[in-house]
Structure formats: C-alpha cells, structure tokens
Amino acid sequence: MEVVRAVQTEDLSQLWELIGQSSVGLTTLQITREQLLDRVERSVFAFHRQTEKPSGEPYLFVMEDVSRGKLVGMSCIFSKVGGFEPSYHYRLVSSKQHCDLLQVTHDITALHLEKIHDGPTEIGSLFLSESYRGKGRGRLISLARFQFMAQHPQRFHKDIIAEMRGVLDKNGQSPFWESVGRQFFQIDFPQADSLSTIDKRFIEDLMPKYPIYTCLLPDTVRSIIGKVHEQTKPALKMLQEEGFLITDMIDIFDGGPVVHCRRDEIDAIKRTKKLILIDVDDSITGEGFLIGTTKKDFRCCLSAVRLSENGLVVPSIVLALLQVRIGDTLLVTAQHPQSTE
C-alpha cells in the first residue's frame, strides 16, 4: 500500500533515482543531484517552519510503496514564483486589424513576454513510476498537495497556477521551441529546458523584447500552442475538475498552457474536512478517501472510511500508514468533487 508524505533528507538517493526515470519536458525535474539536495533540504525546513507566509520555498511530497520501502512518485508545491529570480511566460494577446480600403479584417494573435516578480503559488514536479500509474495513485499524489494547502492556506498565494507540459515530437523535441526559441538561443530544447532550472538570466538576455506574431509561425506550430502532451491530458482533466481554467499564458519553452485557480476556490480544498479519529474497523469497504495528518510530518493515504457525527472510523492499517492513534485529528478529502454532493 502507498503513502504520500513529506520528503526527508534520507530520501535523496531514491529520489535521485526516481527523477532519472522522468522524460524531457518535465522542466522542474531537469536538475542536478546538488540542486535536488537543496530542494529536499529547503522542503524539510518548509514543512517544519512556524511562519504562515509564502516565501518561495518548495514543499516536496513523495509517494512510498510501504511494503517495499521504495519511492515510486513525487509532486511539489512552490509556494511563490518570482522574487529574486523572476518567472517568465508568454501571454497570448489577440486584436483585430481592419482596412476600409481593402475591406479586410484580420484577427491577429501575438506572444508577449511577461516577467513575474511576485507571483502566485505553482504546483508541479508530478511524476509516477510507470508501473504505479493507475488505481487512483496519480490522483492521490496530486490531491495530497491541496489537502496540505487546506491545512495551511496562509503559506500559499491566493492564486495557484500549474504549467502543463506542451506537445513534443517522438524524439522529445518541441516544435514550438524549434520555431520560436531556437531562433534566439540556438540550443536544443532539452538544453534550454535543463538550463532554465539553473539560471533564468539567459531568457532575459536573449528573448526578443517585442511581440512575436503567431501568423508568422508554421500552421503545425500554431495548432499546438496552448495544447498539452498526450501523457499530460489526464492531469489537465483532473485539475479542470478541481476548478482550474486554462489561461491566456503559455510556457516559453514548449508552448504548453498555464492553468489557474484561486486557492480558496479549488474544490479539493473546499471539500477537505477535519475529523477526530474515533475507532478502527477492518470490515469497512467502499470508495477511498484521502486521509491526511495535521502534524508537521504530513502523511496521506487512500482508504475506505466510515463518517459519523462523532468522527472518523478507518481500517487499522491506516494507523500504521499515517503513524496516528485514536483521538488524533485527521484531514478527510473525497477523491472526486461529485463525491461531496
């Protein structure tokens, strides 16, 4: 059985092995071992901090197959983007141009580079080992972040975004990058993708300062602007079910869409409840709920439960997975929005 928990420094070696399985296009995972160690250490501090204010720290969640003691998945919350090193996106801006003499009207769309200095919270770095995909595990590793946000809303910005992976070809190259970015940077997409995690100054140095008109791009490229990678469609659908909307912003590297939702409007946050654990019962069956702890070392698992006016009843295995006991306060989140109706 799997549990999602706050990362620990002892996880570094397994985590490094895990992200080695990820593919090009998952930008926030194209990092060095030293960068990973920095992210892990900052995350450990973030989970144990006392102040309730977003300062740019990462909250790194790992999924562990407890029976094997093996890490099989991960996801992350970046409490605030921007700051000392700004975040960059293209904004799609549409306008009409009309000529009375020729009786011609054009709808023109241009890419405007935007730099965010004091930006929103971003969710990202979601990855699962291929053999662990399905059976609700992707939903667990994703929604666990929102359950944690429900417990600590003030640690995160009022706006939440996610950069969705854009369309890549069979060789892992981005058609959008080949038509736009390469013209100014003259490096391959994987190189740019990896470099952006180390230092974003090259974007400011070389990206054109004026809008780029999409009508000058090939039809094949225009058709994928704001579209997601085939493997990213389930993640996009799940976020949309939680209230996220596709914005007019896209990723500057692969052209994938940026989705947004107000923190307090995310359905998973709204349907998260605090209940007292009052008993155990191994005969409980039915749909699984996300059950999470309210302690500093956050842990979360999927389990069938029984809800009552007095509190929460769970199978005994949940006590071991979450390291809790009768009388503790737990977070309970239905897997799907319609489950709360």
Written account of the structure:
The protein is of the alpha+beta class and 341 residues long. It has 2 domains: 250 residues, Gcn5-related N-acetyltransferase (GNAT) (Aminopeptidase), CATH 3.40.630; 70 residues, Barwin-like endoglucanases, CATH 2.40.40. Helices cover 25% and strands 33% of the residues. Strands 8-5-4-9-10-7-6-3-2-1-13-12-16-11-15-14 form a 16-stranded mixed sheet, with helices on both faces. The radius of gyration is 22 Å and the shape is elongated. The two termini are 28 Å apart. The model has no long low-confidence stretch (mean pLDDT 90).
Offer a few descriptive terms.
Aminopeptidase, single chain, Barwin-like endoglucanases, 11 helices, alpha+beta, elongated, 16-stranded mixed sheet, 341 residues
